[in-house]
Amino acid sequence: DGVGSGAGGEASQLATETITSYVSTGLRCYHTAGTDQEAEFEEALRTAALEAHAAVQAKAQGEGGDAPVRMATTLTLAIVIWPWVYVVQVGDSRCYHFLRGTLRQVTRDQTMAQALVDEGALAPDRLASSPLSHVLVSSIGGEEAKPVVTRFDIKDRDGVVVLCSDGLTKHVSDAELAEHLGRMTSSEQLCRDLLDLVLERGASDNVTILA
Fold it and tell me: Quick check: 171 and 149 in contact, CB under 8 A?
């Protein structure tokens, strides 16, 4: 989910291209996933995110000369190495896992509001309504990128994994998302229904949904 005027989409594209190239040609430690050496794999995933961070920052510097243009993007990347899913998170796009009627947010938003909740300075029930809930403290191409890797298993094949930008979660609550997941007939149907719902509610931001 690119942020910034004009160049936001370019930041997203550059981050995607950089990570795709890194994972497809430079990642050599898949075999350590799910073993007691998997720290090497997780570190490689964080490195992939930081490679994208450096690429976007370099592009912004080159575009703006002495006054770099503002380019940044969030990142939520899921890599499946059966039976594990490894999720790399930077920013406030999200990964959810829906299993047997229960929706779990796998990632943690890297926003100022969430940081205040973590520090006890903001009540959790005020998180969603806080004006700081979409102020990023970590982003690809921003002042700082702090990639976090989370692992969960998908041995139970009845589960559904959803990745989305905050263009969805600004307009659709977790309860509504769970309701749609509970009656889904296909991944395409789910994504189209959720997108239609966002459009009906004004679509204040660009929307990415993958299931």
Answer: no
